[in-house]
Amino acid sequence: MRRTVIGRTAATGLMATSxxxxxxxxxxxxxxxxxxxxxxxxxxxxxxEGPAVGPTRCFAIAEPPRGTAAxxxxxxxxxxxxxxxxxRAQLAVRLSHAPRGPVTLSLANAAFGLxxxxxxxxxxxxxxDAAIVAAIRSGSSMSISGVTADGVPFADAYRLRGAAxxxxxxxxxxxxGR
Length: 178
Description:
Layout: H1 8-19, E1 35-41, E2 44-49, E3 57-62, E4 76-82, E5 87-94, E6 103-107, E7 110-117, E8 120-122, H2 126-138, E9 141-147, E10 153-159, H3 163-173
Antiparallel strand pairs: 1-2, 2-3, 3-4, 4-5, 5-8, 6-7, 6-9, 7-8, 9-10
């Protein structure tokens, strides 16, 4: 199955704009012509693409927090739905570095291998998506780790505060069957 991920500049710009707002509950203005912010829930934001009636994609997204090694390197984690494709709660990750080998997503006591192409990573299949999203919803933090082409280990860490609410908001904004 081919995965579609959010563009690096658009995703990081939207999250930076949203999270820099005076109140994290405030909705930032859209920067893409058809991208609309839904809301920001602590460390995660929810967005809709396409028209209000029949959106093409909705997603929850987060960046590594400031002060971490991955901050400012374009990394993000997202959970998206495409109603027309009947795809729900699909994980997509932009890594801070291009790994030379396998990448592992770790949440609490669970670890998931991800499929990688360049700096993009995703779950192996819809069953892995479901398990990862369930763990994200109930977790407090997650990390995605690997080794760069130069042999240097890296880990992109994310806080999960607000993730469940952002995932729910994105899902509600893109109901199935449209």
